[in-house]
Automatic annotation (TrEMBL):
PANTHER family: DIPEPTIDASE, MICROSOMAL DIPEPTIDASE. GO terms for biological process: methylation; proteolysis. Pfam families: Peptidase_M19. It comes from the Bacteria. PROSITE patterns: N6_MTASE, RENAL_DIPEPTIDASE_2. GO terms for molecular function: metallodipeptidase activity; methyltransferase activity; nucleic acid binding. This is Membrane dipeptidase.
Length: 318
């Protein structure tokens, strides 16, 4: 069963390897063992569309963030779309044009730090093919506070303008990493809200997960919630995290009316620990098999790819 995965951090790994003074040879996207979403693993796991996030660590000085973003975009074009021959999805309808065996690649932005308050840079990212924008990572920036910011503020005036521009360009606004207030600000303004990699806070009380009222509001607005495979977001406490633990989040989302709004956003290449038997993209079918034991094939196809296709900009009802 084909998969659409709405979040990975392979571009950051590729960039760090290229910039490393100790490792002179850059990672080979096709088969590098270090990459959980390399081409071979995407094929093995039957991933049909993989989203690739541009992520700039907050430690990067402000005057270098744009350069770091462009480096990751360049790696997307040269290594992912170029060398590995993934098909760059530049508008949502191009997913429908993928041929058998082809893998689509979607460029996203995790955190507005990359463009600061420069909307020319933002428009440049749209032109380069960015189709989903998360306003923050965990820290604050000029658009909003992130989930790790104690102040807990929402969108700034600039942030609200960015959401309006996302609507205009048929780009998702991603609520993952947003504060609670930021979430509600985005949901009020966004025509195309998505939680690209978030779980249910009722199951695991982590700041990166969503409360039930947030989840219900997302579903009421035809928003998508894609569950994340990062163990600290799946269950509390120590010990091994299993696929069954992850399924508790899917069960809960379904109980809140989300059977047609759920998807997967693995966070592969951005997490330090892993779910047992779901350590990289090549293991995706283990999750599919587990889901088929408790949901119908049509429902699982929805989780895997169909829900996303039905709710992408240009298809979803506002």
């Amino acid at each position: 069963m084909n998969i659409i995965d709405t979040h990975c951090d392979a571009l950051l790994k590729l960039q760090l390897a290229k910039r490393s003074y100790e490792n002179k040879e850059k990672l080979d996207y096709i088969n590098a063992e270090e990459l959980e979403t390399n081409l071979e693993r995407l094929k093995e796991g039957k991933v049909g569309v993989q989203f690739f996030a541009i992520f700039i660590h907050p430690d990067v000085p402000s005057d270098e963030k744009w350069q770091h973003a462009l480096e990751q975009v360049d790696l997307f074009y040269t290594e992912v779309v170029g060398k590995a021959n993934l098909k760059h999805i530049r508008n949502w309808r191009e997913i429908d044009k993928l041929k058998e065996g082809e893998i689509g690649a979607v460029l996203t932005l995790e955190g507005a730090d990359a463009f600061g308050n420069d909307l020319v840079k933002l428009r440049t990212l749209y032109r380069l093919g960015v189709l989903s924008i998360g306003m923050t990572w965990n820290n604050a920036n000029l658009c909003a506070d992130g989930a790790g910011e104690p102040r807990g503020g929402g969108l700034t005036m600039l942030g609200k303008e960015v959401v309006r521009l996302n609507n205009e360009h048929h780009v998702f606004t991603d609520v993952s990493h947003a504060t609670v207030k930021g979430f509600w600000d985005i949901l009020e303004l966004s025509d195309y809200p998505i939680a690209s990699h978030s779980n249910a806070r009722a199951i695991c009380n982590h700041r990166r997960n969503l409360y039930d009222d947030q989840i219900k509001a997302m579903f009421e607005k035809n928003g998508l919630i894609h569950v994340v495979f990062n163990p600290p977001f799946i269950k509390e406490g120590d010990g091994e995290t299993t696929i069954d633990d992850l399924l508790k989040h899917i069960d809960h989302l379904c109980s809140l009316g989300g059977v047609k709004n759920i998807g997967f956003g693995s966070d592969f290449d951005g997490i330090a620990t892993h779910v047992k038997d779901l350590e990289h993209a090549g293991k995706y079918q283990n999750l599919v098999k587990a889901l088929l034991k408790r949901y119908s094939e049509e429902e699982v196809k929805g989780f895997a790819y169909r829900n996303f296709l039905n709710h992408r900009p240009g298809v979803a009802k506002k």
